[in-house]
User: Fold Cell shape-determining protein MreC from Brevibacillus composti.
Amino acid sequence: MSFFGNKRLIIVLVGLVLLITIVGFTSRERSKLSWPEMFVKDTFSLMQGLLYRPAQAVSGFFQGVGDAYSVYEENRALKASLDQYVRTTAELHDLKAENDRLREALEAKESLVKSYQLRFAEVVARNPDTWNNTITIDMGQKHGIKKDMAVMTAKGLIGRVQSVSNFSSTVELLTSYERRNHISAYIQVQVPNPSGGIMYQTVSGVIEEYDPQERLLVMRKIAWGQKIEANQQVVSSGLGGVIPRNLPIGYIVKAEPDDYGLTQTAYIQPSADFSQLNEVMVVERGFTFSPAGELVPTGQPTQTPGGGQ
Assistant:
């Protein structure tokens, strides 16, 4: 037993000596490797070559998936930022347009408040099927709105109140195809003043319809011989008893003789933009004209020349 035990010990010691000798031999810098080293190195190189490409492909695949997800998250964040920017820009433009409209309405109110009572209202409905005919505003009988009151924007007249309910009203537009009420109007014509300078002369006529092809109001019954030219302003005359006086309507585009050559027909570009109706003003006369031509506050009885009311 001691012999075999010593024999194993001797074998282990010899093995250790050989291992140390081999390690020492192989650790030196040599110009040529031994054939066992070359065999081992070639074997491991071949195995590494076989395993490296699949491992690299798998690693590249997962790296690509990670990069694609990062790009997706970044694009989603950028898209959300862009959508927010578009919404903010649209809101800013809408607020700016509303501010401009309200400023124009305030300026118009300051110029008209001496002669008329104005009530501001918002357009709450406009049916696409009757886009050129009517709009609905958010004021009615409870707000003092009455049938046939004139309605305008800061730029000019757009129509009259057609019907009234408690909290809303329907406004018939000047562009309505079904409008039956004619509007008495004046054309403001510049004429030389004998004492020097320029003065305005009014030429009367009646706005009877709207030409949808030309997008112009049609004014008829203009006396023959009156010099009607482009860019002359047209205002309401107030003679019809419905629309107050001196509300801006539009500007002359052209004029031509009627079919019989007895009167003239003028085509008017409306001052108001009928495609953008958001805030409007309902006009109530602050004064009426007495039979003697004097201004009388609304609600005060007027005395006729014969003494009647």
